Amino acid sequence: MNISQAFSIPAAALDAQRERLNIISSNLANVDSTETAEGGPYRRRDVVFSAVPLDGSFETTLNQEMGAVKQVKVSNIVFDPRPFKKVFEPSHPSADAEGYVEYPNVNAMEEMVNMISALRSYEANVTVLNSIKSMALKALEIGR
User: Fold this and answer.
1) Which fold has domain 3-31+45-79+106-142?
2) Which residues pair with 71 in a beta bridge?
3) How far is 90 from 37, CA to CA, in rounded Å?
4) Where are the domains of the chain?
5) What are the pLDDT digits (tens) for 92-130?
6) HEC-encoded secondary structure of the chain
7) pLDDT tens, 59-84?
8) Taking the complete model, does pTM exceed 0.85, yes or no?
């Protein structure tokens, strides 16, 4: 593995976790949004990660088949299929004929746990980047 690959692996993970944090933030911001431009309440979104090859070289493909190096990326953003929460509020402007309002299927507590998990993953990848940087600097010092 060369130094650019060593830097690209945690960098890809940082990008993926940043996208995850953006989606979580959007979910939290819309926890009470009963009307959207598409119509109806906001539907919770989530990211799907997948492992991807570093490049198409023979060495990389061989290493990956032997269980070695892979990067992560956001392969898809999916909508949560869980049903919306119905609350009886006949005076709400978004109430239906029976007086029920559909609220988003976002659980603020669940989103906060997801946010903490994403932040910890982000911090771990920053630590990996710093470790790679210090090892590269030490290798340069040895070469003097």
Assistant:
1) Helix Hairpins (1.10.287)
2) 52
3) 22
4) 3-31+45-79+106-142
5) 988 899 999 999 999 999 999 999 999 999 999 999 999
6) CCHHHHHHHHHHHHHHHHHHHHHHHHHHHCCCCCCCCCCCCCCCEEEEEEEECCCCCHHHHHHHHCCCCCEEEEEEEEECCCCCEEEECCCCCCCCCCCEEEECCCCHHHHHHHHHHHHHHHHHHHHHHHHHHHHHHHHHHHCC
7) 666 666 665 557 888 989 999 999 99
8) no
Tokens of 98: 């029976």
- Give per-residue burial for 5-42: e unless 16+ CB within 10 Å, then b: ebebbbebbbebbebbbebbeebeebeeebeeeeeebb
In angstroms, rounded to a whole number, what is the distance separating the alpha carbons of residues 106 and 28?
A: 7
pLDDT of residue 68: 58
Lowest mean pLDDT segment, chosen from 55-64, 81-90, 121-130, 131-140: 55-64
